[in-house]
Specification:
The protein is mainly alpha-helical. The protein folds into two domains: 63 residues, Arc Repressor Mutant, subunit A, CATH 1.10.10; 63 residues. It starts with a strand and ends with a helix. A hairpin with a 7-residue loop joins strand 2 and strand 3. It is 75% helix and 5% strand. The model has no long low-confidence stretch (mean pLDDT 88). It contains five helices and three strands.
């Protein structure tokens, strides 16, 4: 009868409680047969039971590892879906802002600035002549002409430094 083991001895051998042996037997992991000496008791084949228990534990460990891997992948999928939704939201906000006129095409802005600065330059370059005309009745023509040239020179210097600073990306 050395090939057969009783319930209590099997639980000690496997390091589990008696209820675990009974549950594993009900689940079909372990097989028991009536004890030939006492039909009211059950006995388990020793080697078969140990091998079946080891196989069951390995399967559980493999299943737990797979479940853990699946859970990790599901968390990564959820994070990626969250990032996608946030990107879609940002894109929607940007499209809405564009549709409402908050953004302009770069070419249009450049054209508008170019037009503005052409008009500004014409206006500024007309200032010396206007000043000369205004002070002409109070000063002699040579002084008025010198004042006109000085103002024109100053305006040209300022426009040049403004253009250079704009091209460099800095302030004048």
């Amino acid at each position: 009868m050395e090939d057969w083991i009783a319930l209590g001895d099997l639980s000690k051998l496997l390091g589990v409680n008696i209820r675990t042996i009974q549950r594993l037997t009900q689940e079909g992991v372990l097989t028991a047969e009536p004890d030939p000496e006492d039909k009211r008791r059950k006995v388990w084949p020793t080697a078969e039971s140990v091998q079946a228990y080891i196989g069951h534990q390995l399967a559980r460990a493999d299943s737990n590892q797979r479940n853990s891997r699946i859970q990790d992948l599901e968390e990564k999928k959820l994070a990626a879906e969250t990032e996608l939704k946030e990107s879609q939201r940002d894109l929607h906000v940007l499209k809405t802002d564009i549709a409402s006129g908050k953004y302009l095409p770069v070419e249009q802005v450049q054209l508008d600035y170019s037009r503005f600065f052409v008009v500004l330059k014409k206006f500024l370059l007309a200032v010396p002549n206007r000043v000369s005309g205004l002070v002409g009745g109070y000063v002699d023509p040579v002084t008025a002409r010198a004042l006109e040239k000085d103002i024109a020179k100053e305006i040209n210097t300022m426009l040049t430094s403004f253009v250079i600073a704009g091209e460099a990306g800095g302030a004048p």
